[in-house]
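Q: My labmate handed me this sequence with no annotations at all. I'd like to see what the chain might look like in three dimensions before we decide whether it's worth expressing. Could you predict it?
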Amino acid sequence: MSLQINIKNRSLKKNSGNLVLFVDDTFNTKGIKKYISAKEYLYVSDLLTVSDKKKTIISYNISSKRKIILVSIKKNIKSSQAESLGATFYDKFKDSELNSFVISCDTIRSSLKNFVGFFLHGLKLKSYTFEKYKSKKNKKNISITVIGKNKPSITDQIKFEAVEEGTFFARDLVSEPGNILHPDEYAKRLKSLKKIGLKITIFDEKKLKKLGMNTLLGVGQGSVRGSYLVTMEWKGLKNNSKPVAFVGKGVCFDTGGISLKPAKFMEDMTYDMAGSATVVGLMKSLALRKAKVNAVGVVGLVENMPGGNAQRPGDIVKSYSGKTVEILNTDAEGRLVLADALTFTEEKYKPKFIVDLATLTGAIIVSLGSEYAGLFSNNDKLSNQLIDAGKKTEEKVWRMPLNKNFDKLIDSKNADMQNINYVGGAGSTTAAQFLQRFILNKTPWAHLDIAGMAFSKYGGALNSGGATGYGVRLLNKLVEDYYE
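A: Here is what I predict for the chain of 484 residues:
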C-alpha cells in the first residue's frame, strides 16, 4: 500500500471528491457551511441529528462518487492527540474502497498551532508497512490532497518528513530478518548515510582489538559475521561546541550464545538491535532537517551466536575502560556491547550528555509492559527533559531507581564486576547499574530500556504492528526543545 500527500496552494472547489472537513467536538456544522452546497449542508445537518456524536469521525455518502467526512477536534487538543486522530483517520479508511481525499484546512478551528501538520504526521506514521518480502503486495494507493490557508509551512513540512523518514528507516532496520541484516550488511547501510551529510566512521574487528574493546568483541566472537562500532557525526553548528550523544545496542540476532535462549519466540530476537536502529533513525532525521545542533550517534553491531569460538560462561574480559568483567551468562550480552561503546563515546567526544537505548532486559517488560520505556539516569535535569519529551510525543518513559547498594549484586569475586545478578531480582536496575560503571567522568547519562517498546505484536496508536521505531520522535523532541 502506498500513501501520497499533496499540499496545494489553491482554494476548495465545492464539487471536490471525498471531502474531509473539521468540526468541534459537538459537531457544530456552522464552520463548514460555505465549503459545501446548500443541499449537502442540509443533508449532513439532518443526518447529524441521529448520528453517534461520541465518534471522532463520521462519514456520509453524498453520492456513489462523493463522501463528506467530518472529523471532530476536541477543545484544547494536544499535538499527540492530533497525531492519534490522523492515525485513526487512516485506520478507518485504509481498507475501504476510497482511494482519494481532499482535506480542507480552512475548516480547522483549533488552538493547537499547526494542527494539520500533526494530523498528517500521525496519519503517515500509521500508514507504514513492511512488505519487502511478500510476493503479493497490497497495491492500493491512497491519495490525499491538502488545501487551504492553515496548511503546514515548508519548514514544518521538512521537519515532519525528516522525522517520518528517520522513524521509517528505524522500522525498516528492525523489520529485516537476521540473515539479511547481519553486522556486515548493517555497517554497509550506515555507510550510505554519508550522502545526507553525516560523517560515518566504521571500526572493524581489527581496529576494535587495537582499541581494546573486548567486551563488545567477546559477544560477537562466536559468529562468522564481523563485529563493528560505527560512529555517525552531525555538525549542525559552525562552532565546536560539545555534541549531544546517543548510543545504541545493535545485536542483529541474539541466540543467547552458549547460554542458549529457549527456542520459543527466539525469532523475535531479530529486533535485539532496535536500540541502534533508533539512534540511526534519529541521526538521519537530524541530518535531513538540518538540525542546529552538534550530535553524534554510536552503535555497536554484533551477532550473538553459539559456536566453537563463542564466549563461555566464566570467561573474564577486559573492557575498553580497563575494567574487567566476569561473564556469568552470555545472554546478558547487550550491556557488554554498550559498556565499551559508552566509555568510548564519553572519552572521544566529551559530550553534553549521553543517552543509550537498548532492548536490554525482559524484566522491564514485567515492570512496565508496552506503555513505558524504563529510564535510568545519573542526572535529574536530563531525566526530566526526557520525561517531558516523552509526554509530548506519547513515547513515554518512566524513571526507575539506581543506587550504590545495588552494586554488591554485580560485584565479582574474580573480576571487577560480573555481567548478571545471580541473587535474583532487580534485573533491569542491576543491568543499568552495570552500565553506569562505564561512565567514568560524571557525564550526564540516561539509559532507556526499550525492550517492551521496540516491537508490537498488536500495533499501537501510531503503528500498525511490528517495529515501532520507538525513540526517534522522543529524542528528536529532546534535541528540538532543549538543545537547539
